[in-house]
Amino acid sequence: MKLLRFTNNIPINIFLFILIFLLQIGYKSQAQNQEKRGFKYGLKYSYCQNTIHYSVDIMYVIEKSSFSIGGNYTRLLNNVYGDPADRFINNQPGFNAAYGYSFLNTDNFNLSFNTGFFVYPYSFYESQLGQVNGKKYNKLIVENYVNVGFNYKLYRKLNIYSQLGFGSYKGFFLILDGFMPVISIGVHL
After folding, report:
1. Confidence of residue 161 (pLDDT cuts 50, 70, 90)
2. What is the pLDDT of residue 172?
3. Mean pLDDT, range 165-172, rounded to an integer
4. DSSP string spanning the chain?
């Protein structure tokens, strides 16, 4: 396993910059927000067996339910379609959407059930008989997942969370042909 080199890894640098920015905003927050409705925004890092997603999203909370949508930068780790010899493009922009329901709520902690999607393009070149550049194929990948997570309030509006679950990438909703584990961590304000 390679060690991450923050000076050469642009997606991680951008992710860390936005994280530090959100932490500063959370620290400068004036009063504790006890409202049960409203907008929050945040960052999420998700590992899904074949992909890593860096996401920035906005969330609307209504009582115990939350709805979020945002953009993500997807880094493909493995060739999911085609032949193992095919060359694939491993960095793709995309978007995500999710729904969450929280339970076991206390002042600083809650558990949640979550489901959502990561949608991004997937491109690969099929090379035959030693060709350098073969025919290019494009697909739209919809990764979907369900997970259980916890949310902890660190400071006023600043929350950290972690989620663990499973999902799939070959099918529309939890068709287990392309089964994968999903792990996410993030912050939101």
Report:
1. very high
2. 60
3. 77
4. -PPP-TTT-HHHHHHHHHHHHHHHHHHT--S----SEEEEEEEEEEEETTEEEEEEEEEEEETTEEEEEEEEEEEE-S--SS-TTSEE--EEEEEEEEEEEEES--SSEEEEEEEEEEEEEEEEEE--TT-SS-EEEEEEEEEEEEEEEEEEEEETTEEEEEEEEEEESSSSSS-GGGEEEEEEEEEE-
Q: How large is the average pLDDT for residues 168-184?
A: 73
pLDDT at 94: 93
The CATH topology of domain 38-188 is Porin (2.40.160)
Query: In the chain, what are the domain boundaries?
Result: 38-188
